[in-house]
Design a protein that fits this description.
The complex is a heterodimer of chains A (240) and B (246).
Chain A (H helix, E strand, L loop, with lengths): L6 E12 L2 E12 L3 E6 L5 H9 L5 E6 L2 E2 H4 L3 E4 L11 H11 L6 H10 L15 H15 L3 E5 L7 H18 L2 E5 L3 H7 L2 E6 L2 E5 L1 H6 L2 H13 L4
Parallel strand pairs in A: 3-8, 3-9, 6-7, 7-8
Antiparallel strand pairs in A: 1-2, 1-4, 4-5, 9-10
Helix pairs in contact in A: 3-5
Chain B lengths: L1 H24 L7 H47 L1 H14 L8 H8 L3 H26 L6 H5 L4 H35 L8 H10 L3 H29 L7
The chains are: A alpha/beta (240), B mainly alpha (246).
């Protein structure tokens, strides 16, 4: 259990409907500050919908609190990378990366910019437009944009999918480093169990509109094989 | 070489066909291109340039006014659903009406001078822009800028960073589509209440049975249209570098 003092985001009785379809039904989840919460679950269980609700993109009923206050009132700096958004095709790669800071009127940090661009290996196409890049390269641009923004809350919806093995490892390492340095609160939706285990301080497993959370203590104590079995069973709904 | 193939070569073919027709039919009203160009060179500075100047100014001001009104309004209609719901019925009512029917109204409102002609061009172009831009914004997937909504970007920033650049190619397409009609209407409108403009020059030359002058006017009007099209292509290549389909 998360200590009450450590709760940063508190989601209570969250319901989301798309017309008559229920996307999220009575979801409750607490997220501590400065940690990476990896979210695992089968396709269509509502992982992306949860991120959209936190980002304030979709309407919902229920409560999402940040430090005890409505998240919309608190107006935190939220960086969001989705499966099919995160960069604008009419802006060059460089301008896409800088856009978040420009909108939030934050000053440029050239050393951070250089570091992120170097690690993600996008220096050579900073002046190009996203639609001239491959899928993997575009993904790197989106990751660079959200990393450079250094937001309070990072919502990452399968950010490393579609990357080659080397870039994926380096991007994951960079996220890990940034996390150690400035402690953003990260919600990482992934289908990759190993990625969740490597990056996540905690793992939230979505199953049939319920969420079961594995805290870091349990993750560290349980053997990898047992943990994997337990998580997979939960995803299938067998543990409930 | 590319320019020659694309533009000069077709023009040469048209001129050759025209010359052949003029020789074969030998009609008084069918001036040959040689006669026409001889007249054009002779009277270009003294007459044609002045008429072309008036026509170009009218059409440019007409387009600029249409863009200034139509582009922001089209974006707002596409973005704000309530605004669209309240204004669209009026637009749908006016849009199908042939805009030339408004010419007498504009003449009464603005007099017989330039402004009635400019107003009719603006009216033609503005609806094309409005509908094109509005539909483009409406059909745009909002996911494109989800990351900006998450940042709680203000509407003005959404307009600046998303809607304006996204809709700009549609604006150019709308102007391009309406150019032909605008030129036709300008030709018609310049036959009323003015002694300057290519429309007046062409009709006046016909009345005076000065056919080389008449054809010179038609050619210059075509060149004006051609240059306007090229200008739009230039704007497209300059400001829509990101769109490979453009």
């Amino acid at each position: 259990m998360v200590n009450k003092n450590e709760i940063y985001i508190e989601i209570s009785n969250l319901n989301v409907k798309y017309g008559d379809d229920v996307a999220l039904n009575d979801i409750n989840l607490v997220i501590p500050k400065g940690e990476v919460t990896a979210i695992l679950g089968l396709s269509g269980v509502g992982k992306t919908t949860l991120l959209n609700a936190i980002a304030g993109i979709i309407d919902y009923s229920g409560e999402i609190l940040l430090d005890g206050q409505n998240i919309k009132v608190k107006d935190p700096l939220v960086g969001y990378v989705g499966q099919d958004f995160g960069s604008l095709e009419w802006k060059t790669v460089k301008k896409n990366i800088q856009l978040g800071r420009k909108i939030k009127k934050q000053k440029e940090e050239s050393s951070d910019f250089k570091r992120i661009v170097d690690v993600l290996d996008i220096k050579k196409y900073l002046k190009r437009y996203p639609n001239s890049l491959s899928g993997g390269q575009k993904q790197r641009v989106k990751i660079a944009a959200v990393f450079y923004l250094m937001p309070d809350i990072m919502l990452l919806d399968e950010p490393f999918a579609g990357l080659d093995v080397i870039t994926r490892d380096e991007s994951q390492n960079l996220l890990h480093e940034l996390n150690v340095e400035y402690h953003p609160t990260v919600l990482l939706v992934t289908h990759d169990y190993n990625e969740a285990l490597y990056l996540g301080d905690r793992i939230a497993v979505f199953s049939q509109s319920e969420i079961h959370t594995f805290e870091s203590e349990k993750i560290n104590k349980t053997s990898k094989e047992n943990l994997k079995k337990e998580i997979l069973d939960m995803m299938k709904g067998e543990a409930f | 070489m590319k320019f020659f193939k694309k533009y000069v070569f077709p023009i040469i073919i048209i001129l050759v066909i025209w010359q052949i027709i003029a020789i074969v039919f030998k009609q008084n009203f069918l001036s040959s291109p040689i006669e026409t160009f001889r007249y054009m060179i002779k009277s270009f500075n003294s007459q044609i340039l002045l008429h072309a100047y008036y026509s170009v100014i009218r059409i440019l001001i007409g387009i600029i006014i249409a863009v200034v009104i139509g582009f922001p309004l089209g974006m707002m209609l596409g973005y704000y659903k309530k605004f669209d719901n309240s204004l669209s019925p009026i637009i749908y009512f006016i849009y199908p009406t042939p805009k030339i029917a408004f010419l007498p109204v504009f003449m009464l409102l603005f007099g017989l001078g330039d402004w009635a002609k400019i107003a009719i061009i603006s009216t033609i172009v503005v609806f094309q822009i409005l509908i094109n831009v509005r539909d483009h914004i409406k059909l745009m997937d909002k996911k494109v800028y989800y990351h900006l909504i998450a940042l709680q970007a203000k509407d003005i920033e959404i307009f600046r960073h998303v809607l304006i650049p996204a809709a700009f190619p549609k604006l150019l397409s709308a102007v391009r589509i309406s150019l032909g009609t605008s030129l036709a209407v300008l030709f018609f409108a310049e036959n009323f209440g003015t002694k300057y403009g290519l429309g007046f020059f062409i009709t006046d030359s016909m009345m005076r049975i000065n056919y080389p002058a008449m054809y010179s006017g038609i050619i210059v009007l075509s060149i004006v249209g051609f240059l306007l099209f090229l200008s739009i292509d230039f704007l497209q290549s300059r400001f829509v570098k990101w769109d490979k389909k453009a």
